[in-house]
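23S rRNA pseudouridine955/2504/2580 synthase (Sphingobacterium paludis), 247 aa
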Amino acid sequence: MQESENRLFKFPKFQDLIIFEDDDLIVINKPPFVASLDDRTGGEVNILRLAKRYHADAQVCHRLDKETSGILLIAKNPQTYRAVSMAFEHRRVNKVYHAVIGGTHTFEQLVVDLPILNQGNKSVSIDRANGKAAETIFNSIKYFKHYTLVECKPVTGRMHQIRIHLATQHAAIVGDSMYRGKPVFLSQIKKRGFTMAKDQEELPVMKRFALHAKHVSFSIDGKDYAFEAPYPKDFATLLKLLEKFDS
């Protein structure tokens, strides 16, 4: 699996991921298919390992799912790590994600407030009795015939929060098979003039689920920070194709 992912995705230099850096903080636009931290097997490339090669005291302040792209905050010293971690813990970090979901959905400040239970082994469920409080605010940004681009603002930071909260609205993120999200194929949206060789298997437009951490803002020691991460190529391509063939 790892080898095939690496073939799909050519890993750039860590320096090329950086969108901001000062004496305390490194902010990167994390590419998809790269874990934020070491996993249990510890064998694969991850952001923490790359960051430590760049700056020995680097610590990743939070995490994104492996397939999720976008803003990731990395502290350059223990004081900053603690300050940023506390800001996340006390919900003083404003986070905005963009997702492409299946179907046309009109979300206007839709608040999904459903407790999430972490069942271990990267599996979560909605559990009103035993789950931890989880809240996400959704707004539709752009409508296509069969899909919607949605802004997602997680108030809390539970594992898979945005993904499972969208799934409860029958609005799973495209390509998110864990929550019944179906991938987008060009043949579905480009009805005319789509041809393929007989022995060729069609691949989805995006080879992951369409979720991107777009914006983060917070304050530390009276200093305001705000960061915006452009879409990676696969996310931008999906939107361009939907604009062209599904509008």
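Residues 1-9 have pLDDT under 50 and may be disordered. The longest helix spans residues 233-245. ok done for today
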